[in-house]
Design a protein that fits this description.
The chain has five helices and five strands, in the order E-H-H-E-E-H-E-H-E-H. By secondary structure, it is of the alpha+beta class. It binds acetyl coenzyme *A (ACO).
Length: 152
């Protein structure tokens, strides 16, 4: 971007056309995304879309370049506990290295938490590395437990 040009960012839901805007390359900055074909992407997009508001993927687009600058997702878990309560699980938050430090990560997390609030969730949770603890604290979360996992 040339000097003086103002960056404008737009936050919205993932669109099927975002594969051509660097969405998969952005996910690769988080972990292995794999080399998805267009068919595989379209199929998974349709599957996720069929869950409606129970699975939301949000992106922030840099409007001037048309590049996806940040993303994150949330899944709504429906419980029997807490009088059939709901809980939100935030996953896959990543900001392109070019755009870090501009509060885009925080905007993504706030957007996802607002969705959880609107869906009637009583809590939002996520797993993260110790490195990112400070970031999520800035987003208003607090450390509650340890993560346990097993790769299958
Ligand atoms: C549930 C999950 O998905 S965990 C995976 C998290 N993602 C990754 O690790 C991928 C690689 N990292 C990234 O993509 C980014 O560095 C992110 C998402 C962690 C942060 O995104 P950014 O847009 O750079 O952060 P943002 O600018 O919104 O920071 C918000 C605040 O947190 C602070 N902050 C950002 N990162 C960190 C950190 N690692 N530790 C402590 N504070 C931090 C910022 O200084 C800022 O503070 P301020 O409000 O006082 O100015």
């Amino acid at each position: 971007m040339s000097g003086g040009e103002k960056q404008t960012f737009k936050i919205r839901r993932l669109d099927i056309s975002d594969k051509t805007k660097g969405y998969i390359e952005l996910l690769s900055q988080l972990t292995v995304a794999g080399s998805l074909t267009d068919e595989e992407f379209d199929q998974r997009f349709k599957e996720i879309t069929s869950y409606g508001d129970d699975h939301l993927i949000c992106v922030i687009e840099d409007v001037s370049s048309g590049k996806i600058a940040a993303t994150g997702s949330v899944m709504i878990e429906k419980k029997f506990l807490r009088n059939c309560g709901k809980a939100g699980h935030i996953e896959d938050v990543v900001v392109d290295t070019e755009f870090r430090g501009k509060h885009l990560g925080k905007q993504v997390v706030e957007f996802l938490m607002e969705h959880c609030r609107a869906m009637g969730c009583y809590k939002v949770m996520l797993d993260c590395s110790l490195e990112n603890k400070g970031f999520y604290e800035k987003c208003g979360l607090v450390n509650k437990a340890i993560q346990m996992s097993k790769y299958l």
